[in-house]
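The passage that follows is intended for readers who have already worked through the single-chain material. We present the inputs for a multi-component assembly, then the predicted structure in tokenized form, and finally a short commentary. You are encouraged to pause after the input and sketch how you expect the pieces to fit together before reading on.
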Amino acid sequence: MAAVTETWRRHIVGQLKHRDLNQHHRFQDLIRFYIRLLEKTSLTKGILSCSTRQRSSDRSSVSSLLHQNNDLKKTTGELAYQVLELQQQIKIKECFLEEQHARLVADGSRLEGALDARRALQRRVETVQEDNGTLKRNYDELLELQRREEMKLREETVRGEGLLEDLIHLKTQAAAHMNSHNQRRSRAREANLQKELQTAARSKVTVDSCSSAPTSRSTSPKSDHQQDSTDGGHVRRFRSLSASSPRILSSFRDLFDRKRRGHSVCSLEEDLMFPVRFSSSARVPVRALQVLEAHEQGINAVRFSSSSQLLATGGTDREVKLWEVRSGSLTHRSTLDGSTEGITCIEFDPAGFRILAASYDKSALLWRLDDSVPKLTLTGHSRKVTAARFTGCLHQVVTGSADRTIRLWDLQRAACVKVVEVSSYCSDLVCCENSVISGHFDSKIRVWDSRALRCVQELLVQGKVTSLDIGSDHRQLLSCCRDDCLQLVDLRGRSNERVCFRADGFKCGSDSTKAVISPDGCFLAAGSADGAVYIWNVSTGNLETRLPDRHSSSISAVAWSMSGEYVVSVDKSRRAVLWSDI
Amino acid sequence: MADDKDVLRDVWFGRIPTCFTLNQDEVTEREAEPYYLLLPRVSYLTLVTDKVKKHFHKVMRAEDVEEMWFEYEGTPLKWHNPIGLLFDFHASNSVLPWSITVHFKNFPDRDLLHCPSNSVIEAHFMSGIKEADALKHKSQVVNDMQKKDHKQLWMGLQNDKFDQFWAINRKLMEYPTEEGGFRYIPFRIYQTTSDRPFIQKLFRPVSPEGSVHTLCDLLKEMYPVALPSDGEPKRYQVVIHGIEPLLETPLQWLSEHLSHPDNFLHICVLPVPSD
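Having made your guess, compare it with the prediction:
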């Protein structure tokens, strides 16, 4: 359809073009020229006819010629005037032209200047571009560096995560180990008990009285217990009768045991054993007898028993270890566990049967030396307990804590009987007959009446008090401060004479560095941050000796045996060193 | 379409080279030169021959001059027909330029209308437009036009201004799209073989069945002899504006594009020259 349409349309257009070519374009120029020619011929004809007419009238022609001559003269004058005018105009134009030329020259020079400026700018652009290029290169390098560093960081984080996982794994392993340990122990105890019971059952018992009912199985455990606690004879009978049911018996025994532990901590005979304090002359140690890695983590506290035969160390690994000191060497005897955090302070009771420790887990713990499970846990502090000491009084201990309180505990009731709020962090405590002396971070030593726990005296020192020690005669108080100075205070009288002890190189390594007075009160010993033990002579006030090279890190505590024979120093990197003069 | 606009232009600017010669019998002072002119096909003889008149007046005495009229080979030329039509009808197969004899005496009152001034031509032209619009739009479009629009049509023709003329004429060529064309096509068919001046009847651009009518359909209806019969040589030429459109050309398109300014499609049917 479209093709058909196009055909007739194209045909018409073509035909029209053809028609115009034939009829129009061929003729238009011809006709135009003809018309022009025609006009010209008619014009010439007109002029010719005019001239012929003039020739015919000769007379009038002379006057008309004169007239024409005048006219021509007039026009000549006019034309001359016009020439003058035009010349003037030419002059003006020339002036104008010159002006234009001058302007052109000025513009040219300006253009030149602009071009120069442009060239200079171009040069600057080039230099700036170059600078930019170098900057860009530097930036790229830095970017690359950053990328590498980031990669490293990422690797490190991944490694950190791995380490954290390992740590968690180790912790869970340790917990599992602890659990299995406890389980084993309880199983062993049960087995022991069983064995005892069996032997008891096997042994023949003669029953004198038949007053008790043979059907005592129905007797209530409570009444039995009461009987047991009041009358020893009843106990024997009870045992013999219930031997046929060992399980019930053992559970009773358990209950009974726990009750004893809970309420009456100390048996009377333990308390009756009072310490015999003697002051043998101390001997200044000269060399290390033994160096050992005593704990799995840093050691915070060390103490000799009053008999000098036992040494206790307490560390960040939550354990208290007991060591036998025999013939110049330390032998591991047992480990007391039960604390859930690191141990900060240890003390033997004066009789040497029990050991008291302060712990980071906000409690103080009491063990009997033959039982690794704590006999008593004293809880109540709200922050770590920094010091725990037996008072001179029976059944009482006093604890100091970072929560700025000092608490007095009754061991028989296993309860806190007194709380004193102090204005500062308590770092250490010592006790003498009637008073408790505490050291604080506000550079003060406070003396308290041990019955009422009333502050009776404040002594100002030079820095944070890290530890206190009291001489065996209770006459001298040693304090160690963060100003790297040991201070010996005379407690007698009101004068409180003080002597300072310093040494080159001695530096108090931490907020809990512990210094001691020798048992005879003639020497002072302290460990320094440089890993050396410093010993001062009290009478001369000078440094007696310096024992270096055995510790690789800051010494946290030292202890001097009551026999005066041994000094033990412990440090933050698990090492304990036994020093002696032998 | 661009082609259609070109067609309109070509139609408008169609020219015929003409040689005017003074009649031998006219009394002159001296010999009269022939006068040559390119005559616009769409205009009227008396509208474009002022120069011819002036040219011949130069050689004649004023008292010998009467109304000018034209004659070709003995036939007086009717000025009220467009020039293109006159040429196609009388002289399409003769040699160019078209040689017209100019008379200033013996006006043939029986054959020709008098033309004392241009206003007569204008009246004639406008009546043609109105008649055509009556056929195309029942006179609605031309009656809606203002006086100045009518004047613009006439001035466009008189001064040979294509754009001026078509700015208005465009409206006359519009039609409602749903009807596919004008009501009736304004056309006139001129023939040499009859004494009738022309054939003019009502004829729709679209058949009652809805198919488009072509030039062939029109001739079949009006003048079947003009159509070539099978196997015979062509006997008649159908000429519009000096060309022979194909017979399948749609009549509506022809009316829109090949009409003269008076809006009529002037179609000449001529016998094929026998030389």
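Commentary: The first strand of chain A starts at residue 287 and ends at 293. Residues 210-245, 258-277 of chain A have pLDDT under 50 and may be disordered. How closely did your sketch match?
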